[in-house]
Design goal:
alpha+beta, seven-stranded antiparallel β-sheet, 2 helices, 7 strands, globular
């Protein structure tokens, strides 16, 4: 049986600089280090870690991606959620992640 672990943080939404780049929030480094130490064995290819996320009134299944350059997990925030919650670039967003 897998135990669900909950993490809560606030982070600024940013956009990848590529044309049409995705929007993300980055997990705090200390939190990412703890998650990696505890759950690295659950990661799939490219540092993908399945998660359930709650932002605002929206909750959905997604994945965190470990970025070796930033040394943290990145959480993509899809357009549907950004629109529904009126999230904009550089907004500070309270986020709850269930792993």
């Amino acid at each position: 049986m897998l135990v669900t672990i909950q993490y809560e943080f606030e982070a600024t939404m940013w956009q990848h600089p590529s044309p049409g780049g995705w929007f993300f929030v980055s997990l705090p480094h200390g939190m990412a280090e703890e998650i990696r130490n505890l759950l690295k064995d659950r990661e799939e290819g490219w540092g993908r870690l399945s998660a359930r996320v709650k932002m605002g009134n929206s909750e959905w299944k997604t994945a965190l991606w470990y970025d070796t350059k930033q040394q943290t997990y990145l959480l993509p925030v899809k357009a549907q959620i950004r629109k529904k919650e009126s999230f904009k670039l550089n907004d500070r967003i309270k986020t709850r992640v269930y792993l």
